[in-house]
Write a structure and sequence with these properties.
This protein is of the alpha+beta class. Helices cover 72% and strands 12% of the residues. The protein contains 2 helices and 2 strands, in the order E-H-H-E. The longest helix is centred in the last third of the chain and has 44 residues, at 52-95.
């Protein structure tokens, strides 16, 4: 039988850790979008040029740049938004007595 450890109250978090989490999450989304953009650009350049190799070269170049740059941009925006979320959470949690969690031991 699980033993109840009681309630725990969270009244604040470290904003930089939430910012890092949201930044990494944003960069993963940015990478997915960049890969889709890369594929679309490669196909468009291949169809638009007379040479398949020239189309692939121009499309791959644009795609590789987007795969490097877009996740960095998404990380930066995610980090800023995460830091703001952390700050707002701390202000609200401190003024509203925080969040109460009920903790129990895991059942095997």
């Amino acid at each position: 039988m699980a033993r109840n450890n009681g309630n725990r109250r969270i009244t604040g978090i470290k904003s930089s850790t939430l910012a890092l989490f949201e930044g990494v999450f944003g960069s993963i989304i940015g990478l997915g979008i960049a890969i889709m953009y890369s594929l679309r650009t490669t196909v468009e350049y291949t169809e638009a040029t007379d040479s398949v190799f020239r189309g692939l070269a121009f499309g791959a170049t644009a795609g590789i740049v987007s795969i490097i740059v877009l996740p960095l941009i998404y990380f930066a925006f995610g980090w800023v938004i995460g830091y703001i979320h952390g700050f707002i959470f701390n202000v609200v949690a401190e003024n509203s007595d925080g969040l109460v969690f009920r903790m129990e031991d895991a059942k095997d």
